[in-house]
Amino acid sequence: MNNTFLSDFIMITNFKTIAFIILLIAVLFGVNIMSKKKVKFSTRMIVSTIAGLILGLIIQLVAGFPDNPGDVQWINEVNKWYGLIGYGFMDLLKMLVVPLIFVSIIRVIINMQAGENLGKLTVRSLLILLGTTTIAAVVGIVVGNLFKLGVSANVVESTNEIREITPVVDTLRGLLPSNPVSAMAEGNVVAVVIFAAFIGNSMKILNKKYSDVIKPVTDLVNGSYKIITSIAMTVIKLMPYAVVALLANTIAGRGVSAIKEVVEFIIALYLSIVIVFIIHLIIIAFLGINPFKYLKKVMEPLILAFTSRSSLGTLPVTIETLTDDVGVDNGIASFVGSLGSNIGMNGCAAIYPALMAVTLANMTGTTMDISFYGMLIVIIVIGSLGIAGLPGSATMAVSVAISGMGMGAYFPLAGGIIAIDPILDMGRTMLNVNGTMVTAVAVGKSFNKIDKEKLNKK
Amino acid sequence: MNNTFLSDFIMITNFKTIAFIILLIAVLFGVNIMSKKKVKFSTRMIVSTIAGLILGLIIQLVAGFPDNPGDVQWINEVNKWYGLIGYGFMDLLKMLVVPLIFVSIIRVIINMQAGENLGKLTVRSLLILLGTTTIAAVVGIVVGNLFKLGVSANVVESTNEIREITPVVDTLRGLLPSNPVSAMAEGNVVAVVIFAAFIGNSMKILNKKYSDVIKPVTDLVNGSYKIITSIAMTVIKLMPYAVVALLANTIAGRGVSAIKEVVEFIIALYLSIVIVFIIHLIIIAFLGINPFKYLKKVMEPLILAFTSRSSLGTLPVTIETLTDDVGVDNGIASFVGSLGSNIGMNGCAAIYPALMAVTLANMTGTTMDISFYGMLIVIIVIGSLGIAGLPGSATMAVSVAISGMGMGAYFPLAGGIIAIDPILDMGRTMLNVNGTMVTAVAVGKSFNKIDKEKLNKK
Amino acid sequence: MNNTFLSDFIMITNFKTIAFIILLIAVLFGVNIMSKKKVKFSTRMIVSTIAGLILGLIIQLVAGFPDNPGDVQWINEVNKWYGLIGYGFMDLLKMLVVPLIFVSIIRVIINMQAGENLGKLTVRSLLILLGTTTIAAVVGIVVGNLFKLGVSANVVESTNEIREITPVVDTLRGLLPSNPVSAMAEGNVVAVVIFAAFIGNSMKILNKKYSDVIKPVTDLVNGSYKIITSIAMTVIKLMPYAVVALLANTIAGRGVSAIKEVVEFIIALYLSIVIVFIIHLIIIAFLGINPFKYLKKVMEPLILAFTSRSSLGTLPVTIETLTDDVGVDNGIASFVGSLGSNIGMNGCAAIYPALMAVTLANMTGTTMDISFYGMLIVIIVIGSLGIAGLPGSATMAVSVAISGMGMGAYFPLAGGIIAIDPILDMGRTMLNVNGTMVTAVAVGKSFNKIDKEKLNKK
């Protein structure tokens, strides 16, 4: 056999390579059996995480825990093949960014209510939700930098070129869509959002007089949204398979130290969540409500969110708690609750992508200056509107933020962290729900529609 | 304060920068108040033009009328910020080019009548309209070169590379859409037109037998057209704001000499209009009608067009004059009048973009050879079909022509001229209406449907 | 007259150039008259081929059969102008690739039947059809290389850079659509297919519960498909005109040796067809049927296919023969017959594009290694799904394969061969029909639904 050819083309030169490819296929088969036996998605995710961890450790063990796993040829080969599964999954996630953002922004704007009070209600709810989203993004950025996430895993040769500071004016103009098709082709998320916003706005205006003329477009937007959402769901369903490959790939390729990095990420995320949670409570205090009393009353939805990892599933409990225990007007509670399950998710759509962007920038030696941070916050906040109500919204939020920062090519590096998603998701979801409830209280307060009696009742 | 950081990032190092930014905001506020008080759009445009002129002069005054305003740092900073408003507006205009051309060309073709005589009528009207459009484009190019428009304002370093002459055959093939999506992404206007024409043509053919199958597409095209037209209207409404920033930016950045350039442009435009007008009259003479008699009879719609700056608003008077005074058959007058208010506008869609393209080419040191001119005429004529019946069609025509010539990146340089649009619009509109009337007379003559009695009546 | 200008811009410096341009126009006029007199398309194609051949020979004759026709300036000029017609036609073909593939793949998936047995029937039919397509593609590649097609006509300077072997893993990942819009702009056929497949799959799933929501999208897909098919038909109708220019251009520019190349291509194609035909018979033998008996029974549809060059036109005879003479169950015969007239055409969609890709690669000095071949087979097989049921499907298949291989820019070089399409089409169509019949027999056998009595009857 011609070894050079094999190593260059098929990337299999060693019996170990074949063995580990077969092992991976066997594990994926196991995951598939779980899926057929209708094991819950979250259980499958946890099993996959453990399987990936073990697989990576076995590879390290067989290789004798080398200092530089990247120098061992067969590990590189195994990783190429594992990467095909894992990174291919990441490519599919990226594929959805442009059509998803485009269609869902149009849809969000068309469906905004225009009634008198409803208008005020919407504006106030949005402002507060996006405000807390901004805060959460900032916290994520700060904590990510304090932890120096990703620095030790700098896998891309740092380019020596010093990036010049881009003036904020130029950055802002770069976000404008001077050609919508090229904006889409380049994955310029903000430009796509602006173009979509113009379309949505015009459709909203035309809907009064010319609803019959634009109806085909409206129907198309709704239909496309349904389809893209469904594609997203299909792709997300592949996550348990990808997780095995991604985690094994990470540990095999970067050594046991990779585990340390991932653990650091978990700690950084949970620390950020705690900080934003405290900020939430401070807001509650500013609204004239005892934060401890508030905390005691909302314990139930928070625990449910933490364990179920579903904002939407928790929604009925959230609304009931807000109405019966906190005393928020039922209309407001329902409205803000529904809105907040979709838009401005503090955990999933702000802290998480912020931490991830910082990690990737460190990994790749990307210079982070004020224009980087400003841009990141803008993209996260705008993005938090666009990923409304999607399955796997946290992973989507990361995909959008990374693409929007022009780091789409580095996205696969996030694989190691994407792989441990369930552990991260618990805290994130809890924070989402709390953000929604704080917003509901603030909006209720602003309309003077909080029932003191219920609030003070034990 | 770290001045380097501020100058590099926020571009504010001087109290004067802040002062002038605040001054601009104040002026824009004033423009907004006019808008809220429902001041007429044209009045707002004139006020904005004057305000921008004064603002630019004040900046020059404060800087002591420097020889090279570009060397004064705070003027550069002010201009960056002013440019964000002004050039941002130009970006939004450019954004509309591809979707607009694509959808409207399909729509124009679908809606073409296919009746027997109506077919002949359409073809003849189109040929004459596009013929006069071509003449007007040529006149614009010649006059623009005689005036050396933009030469003194050469703002872009002339690249020394001598552009080779592109054979006409290669130019023609470059216009073909070998991939419609990349043609759209690159803003290749003619390729988009050709692709759209294929679609429109096929839809027209299928409409006979399979109208139910393609109805969703037809409806979508109509709906999208409505939406894009509405977006164009939204963007055009921002023009008074942009005008202030653009004119102030131009004068501040290029000194008082910029005013001279703009005035030269105005003179060149009006000279071109007069020349084409004379050509119109010569055509009338060739048709066997005394041009002076014709002129006397059509004075009313011409004056109305000049003062109202609206071809469409003038249309009823145009048709009435053509029928009652010139003796053109009422059906032909109505048909050509409606067509000519949309297609082949001699002033807005031919002279104006031609002058602008020449100006921009001179400004940027772009070599203009015969392939440049040939291409420009083709794009202007084709473009004059695509911008049919749009608000702000003259500005759109410039946007289309500049993008089509691959000079889209230079489009913002046109800001100084875009800013004085109202002055230009009066002459352009008058010429549009006269072109329509000449076409109506020629078509009427060709069908032998001109009432000599009415024509000779005083 | 300024000769330099003329030669550089208009490419006319010689009386001969003008004469041959006029001659071409005259011939095209003649072709147009045939079209108006409703001469059959195939007759027009043959006449055009002969006309192009003669025109090319006359040019060679006038030039005195030079060794290097490329050194004669007036031949170059004539060829530039002839190329505008011929290669312009090729550009229009390329234009259709992306929208066609995108829409038709979605449509194919939506329309797949999901019934129990129907599902099995579909899967088995598809597998066998695509299996024979793969075999045919491999045969085409092997024969093309044995004949060294295109090597002698190496028209593009061979670039000395040695292309590195791309690992198969990287090739596979490169096929994934990480941004659908840029995939379309780059003409990445496989990525477009994958994205379309995700859309089609989701629409199929949603169709059960949410058919009303996605109906606008379904209708749009069907309408667009109708329109694109109609555009394809419009473009294909131009083929007789293009053929004259392409063949004359080929012979004029490459000398009489070009005829030799084209003849070699014809021989290679028919040899490949014979080889695949023998493989078909071997499959029949493996299915337990005497291949000679089979051959005698299916002679009628094969001859009809060869002379009529229409798989679809032959379909009724194909089904009747399968049912009455070979004894295949009528349902299966109808189903596979219909499917096979559209999908997995062995001749048109496999051998032909394979040979063409090898020829172009040789012509342009493109290195062909295992990743090239692997990729080519994948693209041909996937493409054979996407060009389903189109007019001029063989030419389309070539267009898709060449674009997919990233050799879209070289496509025009195929002109000389495209020009003799009718001669190639006879064998290709015959093989398509035989492939369909073999599939029907295999599927019938697998369901044990072949009537032995009918089969053994004489």
What does it look like?
- Chains A, B, C: It is found in: Membrane.
- The structure is a homotrimer of 458-residue chains.
- With 458 residues, the first copy, chain A, is mostly helical.
- Chain A has two domains: 81 residues, no CATH class; 350 residues, Proton glutamate symport protein, CATH 1.10.3860.
- Chain A is built from 21 helices and no strands.
- Chains in contact: A-B, A-C, B-C.
- At the A-B interface, helix 6, helix 7, helix 8 and helix 9 of A face helix 1, helix 4, helix 7 and helix 9 of B.
User: Sheet with the most strands of chain A?
Assistant: none
- The number of strands of chain A is 0
Quaternary status: homotrimer
Count of separate DSSP helical elements of chain A: 21
Element-level helix/strand string of chain A: HHHHHHHHHHHHHHHHHHHHH
How much of the polypeptide of chain A forms β-strand, as a percent range?
A: under 5%
Question: CATH superfamily name of the largest domain in chain A?
Answer: Sodium:dicarboxylate symporter
At the fold tier of CATH, the topology name of the largest domain in chain A is Proton glutamate symport protein
Q: Termini separation of chain A (Å)?
A: 79 Å
Shape of chain A: globular
Short description:
The structure is a homotrimer of 458-residue chains. By secondary structure, chain A is an all-alpha fold.
